[in-house]
Fold this sequence. Notes:
Distance between the termini: 34 Å
Number of domains: 2
Largest sheet: 3 strands, mixed
Order of helices and strands: EHEHHHHHHHHHHHHHEHEEH
Helix content: 40-55%
Amino acid sequence: xxxxxxxxxxxxxxxxxxxxxxxxxxxxxxxxxxxxxxxxxxxxxxxxxxxxxxxxxxxxxxxxxxxxxxxxxxxxxxxxxxxxxxxxxxxxxxxxxxxxxxxxxxxxxxxxxxxxxxxxxxxxxxxxxxxxxxxxxxxxxxxxxxxxxxxxxxxxxxxxxxxxxxxxxxxxxxxxxxxxxxxxxxxxxxxxxxxxxxxxxxxxxxxxxxxxxxxxxxxxxxxxxxxxxxxxxxxxxxxxxxxxxxxxxxxxxxxxxxxxxxxxxxxxxxxxxxxxxxxxxxxxxxxxxxxxxxxxxxxxxxxxxxxxxxxxxxxxxxxxxxxxxxxxxxxxxxxxxxxxxxxxxxxxxxxxxxxxxxxxxxxxxxxxxxxxxxxxxxxxx
Length: 381
């Protein structure tokens, strides 16, 4: 069996996977054996994340994403199950931004389909910080985001020099005067004094935590409490979970950051290894199935996996070639940590739309089979 199949469009891929699921059940899920890609998705040669500072920031974001869900030291597997790992892997494979955008889109498709609110909430919380990293990696000026210019400017300074210049720092929160002088004194302060300074500024900005510039400013200050580490993430967590992505980003880009310092020692090094793992698009898939086939295989009424996936609690889903996500299909009482998922119910309009889709797919397949049968009869005559 070939390991790679190219099709012209998304519609052609859906038709092909619907046909395979219906008539070749023994080979289902088909994308566990053969990667089915559109021409646009096929990349001849993926790159590698060569910027060590961006890699350190990626590791910090992945570990923070996992740690904020477990509230404890995390394992490599828990890190690999996060949205941030998907983002880090996509940036490592393709710095142009094309793969990153598609990976984000497919991640939402996957966990929207599974109604996994934990993963969707993680994506909403961490997406802005990852858009900044993607822009820095690709060399784009804004990555097409709605982020304020002062936020991107401050992150660029941090990436290039390890610190944010005073003018850029002031633009993040114009109402705070003299903050740049306080930050400049932080290296000479004790840890206790740094925490006191952070707490004072946080109290002043408590009513403005919906502003991304404020979140970046607080994350930047918190990263100076113990430079280049994630040791004080609970301070940010008590204030707002939305501070944590920016704390991780600033800690990873800090001039004193290292792979081991941004995480839990060996876990950080293992995460780095997985992010930069070599990938050959022509190699055999290592997943249980890909996102497009999962959409086809989901049962219309009960909205649960069927066939070879029935009864499984988790599966490894290929979000993009070389980028895989661990998806939980049901809640288990003996799981290492509590995972809250909404009931897998769909309203009537969703059911009707999905039924209409499957009917259209069946009609396409029927026409193709009818055409082949007619051609066969003509040949016999």
